[in-house]
Design goal:
Blueprint lengths: L1 H5 L15 H8 L4 E4 L6 H6 L5 E4 L9 H6 L4 E2 L6 H16 L2 H9 L20 E5 L3 H14 L2 E5 L5 H7 L2 E2 L2 H7 L2 E4 L13 H4 L7 E4 L8 H9 L5 E4 L19 E3 L8 H19 L16
Parallel strand pairs: 1-2, 2-3, 4-5, 4-7, 5-6, 7-8, 8-9, 9-10
Helix pairs in contact: 5-7
C-alpha cells in the first residue's frame, strides 16, 4: 500500500472477509486502471468485461485462476510473485512430511478427545525418514528447497521428474532425473511442486497411487486439483500408500466432515504454504511493483504473459 500510494496511485481496497462475486469484482474494477488480486477467479467473461485494465497483478506465484490466453489476446499484462515464497512453501511441505510420518495431527486430536490413556508401545507407530528416497514432481525453486531440507536433515536420496534437467540440483544434491513411472514406483516420499496445467490436472489418481510403494507418503503443496481426492482417500483406506500431507485440497476450503481429516496417517493444512510475515510482505512488494510498472507503461518485473509485449 505504501509503495502504491508513494507512486501517486489512488487505491481502493475490498475489506470484507468474504470473496467478491464475479459481478461485484467487475463493478469494482469499472473506472480503475489496475487490479491487484489475491485469489479471485479471473475468467474470460471477467477479462472481457474489464478489458480496460492496464495491468493485473496477482498476489501469488500460481496463475491457474486466470485465463491467461484471453488476457494475452486482450493485451492485458498479468504479473505474479515467483521466487520469494519458495523457502516458506518448502518448509510447509517438510512440516507435512514429518507430521504425517509420525501421525502428529491425529495424535494431537487424541489428546483433545481425552484418549491419551493406557500406554500401548506398538499402537499408532509412525515411520522413519532417514535414508529414504524423496521423489519430487516438479523440481523447480520450491522443489529444490524441499530437496535441500530432506537431504540435509535425513540424508535422503533425491529423484525427480521434470520436462528438463535441473543441473544445479543434480550437482548440489545428487538429484537424478527419472521417468514419471520410475518416480511413482521408487519414491518413499513423493512431493508435488508443479504448476496446475491441463497435463498435470488429476494426474495423481487411483491408478497412480496403486503403483506407489505401500509405505510411501504423498505430499502436495502445489494445487489440489493435481490429485484426485476421492482416489487418494480410497488408496489410503486400501493401504496402497502409507500416508498423505496436503496443504492444498479440491475444493478449497475443504468441507469439515471430509473423511481425510480423521485419518491417522493424514495431515491437512488450509493452504498456508506462503503464510509467513516475511513471505507475504515480499509477495505484496512484488505485486505492487508489477502494478506500478504496468501503469507507467513499462514491462512488468514478473510477467506471466510476455507475449503481450510483442508487436
Amino acid at each position: 500500500m505504501k509503495l502504491l500510494r508513494e507512486a501517486g496511485l489512488e487505491v481502493t481496497v475490498w475489506t470484507e472477509k468474504r470473496a467478491l462475486s464475479k459481478q461485484e469484482l467487475i463493478d469494482h474494477c469499472i473506472g480503475k486502471d489496475a487490479l491487484l488480486s489475491v485469489s479471485s477467479r479471473l475468467d474470460a467473461a471477467f477479462l472481457n468485461a474489464c478489458r480496460h485494465l492496464k495491468v493485473i497483478a496477482l498476489h501469488s506465484v500460481g496463475y491457474d485462476n486466470v485465463d491467461i490466453e484471453e488476457a494475452t489476446k486482450l493485451k492485458i499484462p498479468v504479473g505474479n510473485t515467483p521466487g520469494v515464497l519458495s523457502a516458506a512453501t518448502a518448509d510447509t511441505a517438510f512440516l507435512l512430511m514429518l507430521a504425517t510420518s509420525r501421525k502428529a495431527f491425529y495424535m494431537h486430536k487424541q489428546i483433545q478427545q481425552g484418549k491419551w490413556g493406557f500406554f500401548e508401545p506398538t499402537a499408532n507407530l509412525g515411520i522413519e525418514l532417514y535414508g529414504k528416497t524423496l521423489g519430487v514432481y516438479g523440481l523447480g525453486k520450491i522443489g529444490t528447497e524441499m530437496a535441500r531440507r530432506c537431504k540435509g536433515a535425513y540424508h535422503m536420496d533425491i529423484i525427480y521428474h521434470n520436462r528438463h534437467h535441473n543441473e544445479e540440483a543434480e550437482k548440489e544434491l545428487g538429484a537424478v532425473k527419472v521417468s514419471f513411472d520410475e518416480l511413482v514406483k521408487n519414491s518413499d516420499v513423493l512431493t508435488v511442486h508443479t504448476a496446475l496445467t491441463p497435463k498435470t490436472r488429476g494426474v495423481f489418481d487411483y491408478h497412480i497411487f496403486s503403483r506407489m510403494k505401500p509405505e510411501a507418503v504423498f505430499i502436495n503443496t502445489a494445487r489440489g486439483a493435481i490429485h484426485n481426492e476421492e482416489d487418494l482417500k480410497r488408496a489410503l483406506e486400501e493401504g496402497l500408500i502409507w500416508g498423505a500431507g496436503l496443504d492444498v485440497t479440491n475444493p478449497e476450503p475443504m468441507h469439515p466432515d471430509n473423511p481425510l481429516l480423521d485419518m491417522p496417517n493424514v495431515s491437512i493444512l488450509p493452504h498456508i504454504g506462503s503464510a509467513t510475515v516475511q513471505t507475504r510482505d515480499a509477495m505484496a512488494v512484488l505485486a505492487a511493483k508489477n502494478i506500478i510498472a504496468g501503469l507507467k507503461g513499462q514491462r512488468l518485473p514478473n510477467i506471466v504473459n510476455p507475449e503481450v509485449y510483442e508487436n
